Amino acid sequence: GCYAADPWPTNIGGQAFLESNEDYHAKTMPELVDIFMTNRDWTESYLKTQKELDAWAKKHPYDNPPVVLHSEQSEAAYELIQRGPKAKAATQAMIQSLTNSDFLTRQWASHHKDADEQRADSENRHWSIQVLQAIGSNSPEVVPALVNELYNHGDGYEAAEALIKISSSDTNILPSVIAKLENNVD
Asked: pTM (2 decimals)?
């Protein structure tokens, strides 16, 4: 979730942030998938008005103002990854998230005026691939989805890494990759 501490927590690179107390381990699979699909990781200023920012700058002339770090998607993804093959029920959502990443991120960003859309989309794709890798060949849709990502300039390398890891326990991966490459000489 949302990170918080009192009055200001430890910081990341000099940036104070608020601390999470959400228990993702206790969430059901549908709850985790819903969190993953409807959230992106992003930050927003904790101080909302110019008056608050000015007061902060006066008291802390060398520090950045604190931020609220929203990490619902990455925490839900991390929990899905921990469940590994047991997260098989999330396969279709991860494929949809990967396939429609741009659209889903734009739709999400339209509700968050300060959102960094490009970073949010990149994180969405990253986590989708990581969850699919954790599910592995327990779901027959995982390998074709990752093979399709090989031609994505932004994510092809990460998809290849995921396929390499899955192939250590499933020898059917290599023929799928070779067939895909043979069908597209470019």
From this structure: 0.78
Query: Which tens digit of pLDDT belongs to each residue from 15-34?
Result: 555 545 578 888 999 999 99
Spatial distance between the Cα atoms of 118 and 145, rounded to a whole number of angstroms = 22
The alpha-carbon radius of gyration of the chain (Å, integer) is 19
Residue 88 · residue 135 · CB < 8 Å: yes
Phi/psi for 121 (5° steps) reads -65, -40
What letter does residue 63 receive in the DSSP assignment?
S
In a 13 Å sphere around the CA of 41, the CA atoms on its Cβ side amount to: 15
127 contacts: CB under 8 Å, gap ≥ 6: 36, 73, 74, 77
Three-state secondary structure call for residue 147: helix
Nearest-angstrom CA–CA distance, 162 and 21: 30
Of 19-28, 88-97, 151-160, highest mean pLDDT: 88-97
- Token digits for 149? 């990502």
CA distance 79 to 85: 12
Q: Are 31 and 23 in contact (CB under 8 A)?
A: no
Q: Which amino acid does the sequence have at 45?
A: S
